[in-house]
Amino acid sequence: MSTPVSLETVGRVPKALLHDHLDGGLRPATVVDIAGQVGYDDLPETDPEELATWFRTRSHSGSLERYLEPFSHTVAVMQTPDALYRVARECVEDLAADAVVYAEVRFAPELHIEGGLSFDEVTDAVLAGFADGELDAAAAGREITVRCLVTAMRHAALSREIAELAIRFRDKGVVGFDIAGAEAGYPPSRHLDAFEYMRDHNARFTIHAGEAFGLPSIHEAIAFCGADRLGHGVRITDDITVDPEDPSGTVRLGRLAAILRDKRVPLELCPSSNVQTGAVDSIAEHPFDLLARARLRVTVNTDNRLMSDTTMSKEMLVLAETFGYGWADLQRFTVNAMKSAFIPFDQRVQIIEEVIKPQYAALID
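Structure (tokenized):
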């Protein structure tokens, strides 16, 4: 008898996460606690449960710009080494508790220097928290590998400095670079020097593109900037058609969609977040299944666990319930993510063959 797909059973299988923002995944109680310690008095709620509800409801805004506004509160309590360390360590503990075995967690160092820290000091604190979080998880019997992506804000002019930071810390836990923030008016090509610097140093990077803006953003990220992965990328559906007269539902890819498929460019899809930002209207209308059927390399991600009140288990379960996925499908999406990670090939293969596949094999008919 096959094991049913439920929150409990999904919660036990290994997962790989590529798109998770550190400042979007704090524990509500931690936000309240640190705010009290540092004298931050602007929280909208001081009860952790009420604060969690506030973040969730405020983030369900229908636009990326409004979705980003609540981050001012989480960033405000992440301005000291102790706070950054604590948030990073708790992040790893929370992911491990959800059976995430590999994660790349991203953050923007430029948002955490209001207290006088340097980019290097910010990054040192976060990486120390990740390292100790891994030790905590291992002691609890949950092995997890967490690596870091440093992010530059696309509306600012610090991307080259952040790219240089990524290279300085490439052997200390930073495995890549990213740009994030409002897309409209801030195309990826504004940061070409940063991407060229990464390529010059044989380093990897992903770009937020095709979330709140359409095909031009995706085209620039791939054709001009040379992105290894796309953060979100849901708007690639503007280049995909399904023949309504064809009972088999034949999917036709335009040239941009086809090159993403043919080059196996991973899409870091974040279903719940995409609904909150208005990128899609509902999970049922999310293009995840269309993209999966078209054989693009889709991956499942959380984006911001606090803002979306989500986990990897919840994201995988809602997709399974909406689109009828079984264990073989969930394994494929997990392997997709692990194949697309920015760690060395042999490490990716080891996690796939020794951790992911054996545990899913017991569940697949």
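The radius of gyration is 19 Å. The mean pLDDT is 94.
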